[in-house]
Amino acid sequence: MSTYIDNLNWRYATKKFDKDRKISDNDMATLTEALSLSASSYGLQPYKVLVLTDPELRARLQPAAWGQAQITEASHLIVLANQTTFGDELIDDYLSNVSMTRGIPPEALKGYGEMMKSKLLPLSDPEKAAWTSRQAYIALGNLLSAAADLKIDACPMEGFDPQQFNTILDLEKENLNAAVLVALGYRSEEDQTQHYKKVRRPIENLITYL
Predict the structure, then answer these.
(1) Which pLDDT belongs to residue 118?
(2) Domains in the chain, please, with CATH?
(3) Which residues of 118-151 are buried (b: 16+ CB within 10 A; e: fewer)?
(4) 135 near 46, Cβ under 8 Å?
(5) pLDDT tens track for 56-75
(6) Cβ-count burial of 107 within 10 angstroms (0-12 exposed, 13-18 middle, 19+ buried)?
(7) Are 191 and 15 contacting, i.e. CB atoms less than 8 angstroms apart?
(8) List of residues 6+ apart from 129 with CB closer than 8 A
(9) Would the keyword NADP be found if you checked this record's keyword annotation (predicted)?
(10) pLDDT at res. 120
(11) pTM for the whole structure
């Protein structure tokens, strides 16, 4: 069995963290780079990643996450915040980056930009928000796998009030919405869920070859 599969079997949604163990700066740099390398539709990355370490800020957020201990006990709290709407600027900024990074004249990218705009800009704001949220969830999956590879524990969390998070973190002024949280750190020896056998559907009931 590969080390990658071993690590995925090792990981679980950690319920109780060792609040005295902190993730090193080097490991956090690896995790944030993994986030930046996540796949996204058209490569647009229509979201922002907030890394929260301030204890006072996280204590303010905890009631908006149903008082869950992971919010304050984990080493780091990640907020993946999707853009609630966008216009030409999302695509134009991306194409400018492509042009600079790959040395391609901007005019050579015009057709590609027009294609993206024809697909994305006619969407309603709710449709745009749903699409950007899905892109944030792709990044979530990459983060969980990268953390497991480093033997860093993680707990993805949807159990929170996005509106309260948006208010406390002042996200709405940037057209952002807290889509999903990830608590990162190291499991406590007292967390009994680490000993539970992993439960998944049998592969033959999940995977179909056609």
Answers:
(1) 98
(2) 3-85+130-206 (3.40.109.10)
(3) eebeeeeeeebbebbbebbebbbebbbbbbbbbe
(4) yes
(5) 999 999 999 999 999 999 99
(6) exposed
(7) yes
(8) 82, 83, 84, 85, 177
(9) yes
(10) 98
(11) 0.95
